[in-house]
Amino acid sequence: MENTYPDGENYVCADCGYEWPISATADTDAAEESVVRDANGNVLNDGDSVVLIKDLKVKGSSITLKMGTKVKSIRLASGDHEVDCKTDAGSFMLKACFLRKA
Question: How far apart are CA 2 and CA 44, in angstroms?
Answer without folding.
Answer: 23
